[in-house]
Design goal:
Helices cover 46% and strands 13% of the residues. With 295 residues, the protein is α/β, with parallel strands linked by helices. It is elongated.
Length: 295
């Protein structure tokens, strides 16, 4: 009960006609407790105009406060009976009201009540406006955020920047003339699914793709002559890369990453690996090669 009692005491600390007190019946308050018939602890008593009565209600703050409000009629610290407790501003308002007639005071009360009502309405509207502005702010911030996606490997600088401080998966896809736009999009969809699955698992892994043959020298050094699509995982900070030997599917790529994290994939040094500049894919089928190109 003590925390609620102390809260009640603070609630009425500045109320001139309400006094909340504690008496220690085992020490200096023995006489007071004996005179008022206190036999058990804690006992709560009310004193109104010198007359004592027992309080047997709830011992929580809200219940005890209702008792004080209904029985003791607490008045504000600043009142006609205690002007000294008023601030300069409060005393001015009090004394102006004191000089009013009943009709003037009733009109003033009605006016201020309407102002309070209008202010609350304005506050609610401002709160609603602030909430909408906060939502707009989040969207504005989101517009500048970088959305992680499967990106094309176009040059060495972007490759290093994209994979800085983390492992990256690079998929070497068939040439557009072999796979066409439809086949490439299907492969990219599988890569995106694998990326989303890795995020759900809490992994920070970058995903890139390259057209088979665009990085010929690097493909040769990695030993990707077995054909496309081919997948490698690389970590520049550790100077290591590993090759995926399974099929090209979301499930198999996820298993490859799990095996990689557990040390189950043979690793090779990245020394000498650098990406060449490549042309970005426009999302369309490539035109068929001319007769000169075929020759």
């Amino acid at each position: 009960m003590l925390p609620d009692w102390e809260r009640l005491s603070k609630e009425y600390a500045d109320t001139p006609n309400v006094f909340i007190a504690i008496v220690d019946c085992t020490a200096g308050g023995q006489g007071t407790c004996s005179e008022n018939g206190v036999q058990g602890y804690p006992t709560i008593k009310l004193s109104i105009d010198g007359k004592w009565s027992d309080y047997n209600g709830g011992r929580d703050f809200n219940t005890m406060k209702r008792e004080v409000e209904s029985k003791l009629s607490p008045r504000p610290a600043c009142s006609l009976e205690s002007k000294d407790a008023c601030s300069a501003e409060a005393r001015q308002i009090l004394e102006e009201s004191e000089k009013m007639s009943k009709a003037e005071r009733a009109a003033k009360i009605k006016e201020v009540e309407q102002e309070i009502k209008d202010s609350k309405k304005q506050a609610a509207e401002l709160e609603k406006k602030a909430k909408k502005l906060a939502e707009s702010l989040d969207l504005i911030k989101a517009g500048g955020a970088t959305v992680e996606k499967v990106e094309q490997l176009l040059n060495d600088a972007d490759w290093k920047a994209h994979c800085e401080g983390r492992t990256c998966v690079v998929a070497f896809l068939p040439h557009i003339l072999d796979d066409l736009a439809k086949g490439r999009k299907e492969h990219l969809k599988k890569l995106d699914d694998a990326m989303q699955a890795s995020k759900k698992d809490g992994k920070n892994i970058g995903f890139l793709w390259s057209q088979g043959g665009d990085q010929f020298e690097m493909e040769e050094k990695m030993g990707l002559q077995f054909g496309f699509p081919a997948i490698i995982a690389i970590n520049f900070a550790k100077s290591k890369f590993g090759i995926h030997r399974g099929t090209f599917s979301k499930e198999q790529i996820s298993q490859f990453l799990t095996s990689l994290s557990r040390g189950g994939v043979p690793l090779n040094p990245t020394a000498g690996l650098a990406a060449s500049k490549a042309d970005p894919w426009d999302g369309k089928d490539a035109p068929p090669p001319s007769e000169e190109e075929e020759l």
